[in-house]
Prior knowledge:
The complex is a heterodimer.
Chain A: E1 4-8, H1 13-23, E2 27-30, H2 36-42, E3 48-53, H3 58-61, E4 63-65, E5 69-73, H4 78-82, H5 85-90, H6 92-98, H7 104-107, H8 112-117, H9 124-131, E6 135-140, E7 143-148, E8 153-155, E9 158-159, E10 167-174, E11 180-187, E12 198-206, E13 213-221, H10 231-237, H11 244-257, H12 269-293
Parallel strand pairs in A: 1-3, 2-3
Antiparallel strand pairs in A: 4-5, 5-10, 6-7, 6-10, 8-9, 11-12, 12-13
Helix pairs in contact in A: 6-9, 10-11, 11-12
Chain B: E1 2-8, E2 11-17, H1 23-30, E3 49-52, E4 55-58, E5 71-73, H2 86-93, H3 103-116, H4 122-128, H5 140-153, H6 182-187, E6 202-208, E7 214-220, H7 222-226, E8 230-234, E9 259-260, E10 266-272, H8 275-284, E11 286-291, H9 298-301, E12 318-326, H10 329-335, E13 338-346, E14 358-362, E15 372-376, H11 381-392, E16 399-403, H12 419-429, E17 433-436, H13 439-445, E18 452-460, E19 466-476, H14 484-493, E20 504-511, H15 526-544, H16 548-555, H17 575-588, E21 598-601, E22 604-616, E23 626-633, E24 639-643, H18 652-664, E25 671-675, H19 692-719, E26 727-729, E27 732-735, E28 738-741, H20 742-751, E29 757-763, E30 780-792, E31 798-808, H21 815-834, E32 840-841, E33 844-845, E34 863-869, H22 891-903, E35 906-907, H23 914-923, E36 927-928
Parallel strand pairs in B: 1-5, 6-17, 15-16, 19-20, 24-25, 31-34, 35-36
Antiparallel strand pairs in B: 1-2, 3-4, 3-5, 6-10, 7-9, 7-11, 8-10, 12-20, 13-18, 14-15, 14-17, 18-19, 21-22, 22-30, 23-24, 23-29, 26-27, 27-28, 30-31, 32-33
Helix pairs in contact in B: 2-5, 3-5, 11-12, 14-15, 15-16, 15-22, 18-19, 21-22
Amino acid sequence: MKLWESYHIPSTTSEALALLERYQGQARVVAGGTDLLVEAKAETHAPFVALIDITRIPELMSLEVSANEVIIGAGATHAQIVKHPVLASRATCLVESCGVVGGPQVRNVATLGGNVAHALPAADGTTSLIALDAQAEVIIEGQRRWLPLKELFLGPGKSALNPARDLLVRFRLALCGTRQASAFKRIMRPQGVALPILGCAAWVELDETGQHFASARVSIAPIGPTPARASEVEAQLVGQPTDEATIERVAHWAQAALHPRTSKYRATADYRREMIGVLLRRTLGLAVERARTGQAIPQGVGL
Amino acid sequence: MAELKITVNGQHYQRDVAESRTLAQFLRYDLGLTGTKIGCEEAECGICTVLVDGMPVDSCIYPVWKAAGRSVTTIEGLTQGDELHPIQRQFIRHGAVQCGFCTPGLMMTSCALLEENPNPTEQDVKIALKDTYCRCTGYTSVIQAIQSAGREMQGLPPLPVNDPEVSEPLRVISRSVMPQEAVEKVTGAAKYTDDYVFEGMLYARTLRSPLPHARILAIRTDKAKALPGVRAVLTYEDVPGENLHGLVYRDWPVLCHDVVRYVGDAVAIVAADSEDIAALALKLIEVDYQPLPVVADPIYAHSPEAPILHPNHPTGNLLKHIKVRHGDVERGFAEADVIVENTYRTPTTEHAFLEPECSVGVPKGYPGHDKLTVYVGSQIPYQDRNQIARAMGLPEEEVRVVGTLIGGGFGGKEDIAGQIHVAMLATVTGLPVKMLYSRQESLIFHPKRHATIIKIKTGARRDGKLVAIQAELYGDGGAYASLSDKVMTRATTHATGPYEVPNAQIDCYAMYTNNVPSGAFRGFGVTQSAFAVEQNMDMIAEALGMDALELRRINAQRVGVTTATGQLLRESVGLLETIGDVQQDMYAHHNGSGFRWAWREGHKAYGWGVACAYKNTGLGGGAPDKSEAEIEAFEDGSVEVRTAAADMGQGIAHVVAQCAAEELAVPYEKVRVLLCDTDRTPNGGPTTASRQTFMTGNAARHAAIALREAFTQYAAELYDVSPDSIRYEEGLLRTNGKAVEVGEIVKHMKAHGVQPRTRYEYHAPATQPLGTGGDMHFAFSYATQAALVEVDTETGEVHVLKIVSSTDIGRAINPLMLQGQIEGGIIMAMGNCLSEAFIIEEGKPWSRLLARYKMPSIKHTPHIISRLVEDRASAGPYGAKGVGEIPSINTTPAICNAIYNAVGVRVFSIPVDQDALLRAMKAGQKAVYTAWQDVK
């Protein structure tokens, strides 16, 4: 059975906004459709009156790298991000997280914007964007502005963006510089829905000696109802030596301090607590090594 | 509607296309390019993959308007003229095409990979095809085919074909000839049911019960009937004949009347001008239900307080109590030096054949159809005809069932799906009617593998000899009987494992519940009991300090052994040889310094585990088992074999063609096969119980022998020579220095009014019902497998690295394609062990999306080292016995035994839950009793 009636392909944001306005809440913004349309298939409600495809709006499709930052259009696909050499070396965790989403067919159409707009607490791309302290440019109620990414998340599956009214335009994030690096890892299970049991992105900056954490940003998901930084974990790292002992201590501490939940057919809270330790060890260790060597080659892409 | 500009396979189109179309729908239904298949519409299975500007996408959820102005390549665009693309050629050459339904998607995804990287490593292939599923091949041949194609594209020689070693090959038999319709399958020309289109055809949908158990108080169809474009809305009142169907017990309503018994039970059917209208009409049908108490599990079903689901069944919810009695178990256990007793659980599992069910009904009198005709990809066409006729109140001769190609079955296409419904709708509307199930409908509707609870006690002496096995099995049969009786009988009779067990007492309770019905699924109950039997075996070996393979060798069935059902094994018991093979290959494929059962490297634990299996060939149990085939020769020297034996990808088509070519001494290429048309092909019987090679292979072989004898007799008279002087070779008949083409003889015969056509009805050797002793089955296949697993001791994740397998199949008729059965069976069984469970919560299926049911993908493919043992079965064609099921039985316990050896935790419930496994390891526990579906 059909999942939508009309299909529109605007070429500017204003055209897209006008279409959304015209349909009075009956239209949906669509990019790759790999979440929206599959969900529509799962539900038995009436077809969407209209879909507004934003993937031919140049502003949403851009991927601009400057000296220290990158702007990624909301319509950039996972495949584009994964194949981008600068992102691979300087926003490595983002490439690693986008690289484990689906297979090639999905990554070729699924967008980073869609990943964020869906507002799932453990979306892979989102987890990395949070650790990279990304900002998002949105048009909410006709107002265009930049927001810290985390402000877009109101609850599980609940976004500050109204998919029948608002647009997510692009993301901005700082690229890793000297003594900075990031890493992403996740734990999956071979059964059930393709959502991570737990994902973890870590960004670190080492001091000039390379022996201590000057700064750290860690995002572990799902812990709360929305994606968020694990600021207590970050605080435990700053100023500490970048050795195994620190990481081990922080991993232990985090296992006790964080309170993951049990999700049906996904994971028990106890298992997730164990995985907090495993993922922190694995991502922090890798990020430190990358920051030290200045070499970052994404791992696990495509698997 | 608006005008879409799009390029497809180099051709520019500019036409009005509905904005609501997906790319797959546009290609299939608007352009008629039916090579692109639809498997799930969830972007899960990847079989709908096409290239958009060279990039693979899932066309099933890709809006066609998204492709506006772009260039699309489909499977039909791969071929250049008559020349196959290297990918197409290599898929055939490596035996990577079975049912063919996923083949276009696999090839298009491969095409994109090879354009970018013509030298892919195995890992590169796994990354590229991670989300493109195949349920038949097991992927090993697919990986080789892709690598070979890449080489061919660069002008390099392709990789060698991994053709297994066989003994005493004949001229065509035991040769890896190309399967029938392989070219059609790789070019997208092959036609499956949904690829059939008839002028004026209507589209049908089924209204299904949303409740697991309820009384129907009223059904109102007026609003639906009033919807423009709706041509018929039918309920139980409109069933012309008997409103029941069922293969063993006739207990399943065609359309529910007073009660619904599971979520998915059919209540009403609609035919309309379009699928969308039919879907809309379903929403307008009002049904008043009074919910009834739900029987959600088989043990509760057996309790006195459970409501009775089928009041007419004489033993209530107990569909059948199945018993095996052999010797005296009490005396046996008294002799035992070691006894282990455990309870195992297996979940309901889903076939996930990649082609959802589809039927097309064409009414009597429609052009080209002189009787009510149903086109369907079914495993049992003649039983379909019988069941359609009964429900339609027609004599069987007034119904014709035409089998189409089948996109996988694995047992899941034995029961009636939409066949009767389209017959009803076609008859009422006077027009052809197609009913295609969505993946989501297929998931909730069709019978599954039985969930079981198996309590089993095994006793052995100090010297390793088994002395007794006692077991109690509960099988969740679901709402209707389907094949529960037979499946659970097989679980029971095979619950001793392939061993000599002097004393056995096994009781099995097949129960009705309000869950989805359970029926046939590759392995047919034996998959479940082997999970329990083979882990108990390892525990006995551990308790005795004995090597796990040695224990099995000591007890292995061999010629002269009497099974627990009282059958004296007189021949073709190749189990010991399979054990020897596996031991040798396992030792040869050790990692590092010498063979060890287990070792550690950092936080990874490694372990080998083994398990044995056996599986009957044929129906057995006293059921008359027969198959019929017809062969006709033509003037051009070609031959046609006709039989209604379904080929769901397993390859009975090439098996019968090989038998005919062998006996008639004609080239294999000269043999055509016509399958499954109840008006044109005699009954080959059901494709079930690994029986077709044995049964229909024999029928074809004997029909060919009879035809050859007819040629001989005719030629002897024609040329006035002794029949003994006549020889056949390569399409020629030779006598006294003369060489005549077979086609010439055919011409002569026809000119004299003799039809060069023979028919043979093959009857299997007689069998005995369970409980009467004697031969319950006429042949068994045997297998031993070893699994090497890696367990991450930090996360509990389990990976299977290697499977070593040896399988006694009597004779490999087509070694390469037979190996595909083995590899595919192993991968399917890995899913059974590690990922698959169809979850039903209080009668309501949670697994109603393919996204919630994960089967193994190419990335899970281990290195498979497989050998064949050919211990001939004297009655089998050239010594062959069944292969369809045997490879998928012992993989699960082999993996679980390997996990135990690696980390010391035994898994009593599947699919293996890494969460529980890790927690057990951390807590120092030695057992896990919960599975993934218990994570709540």
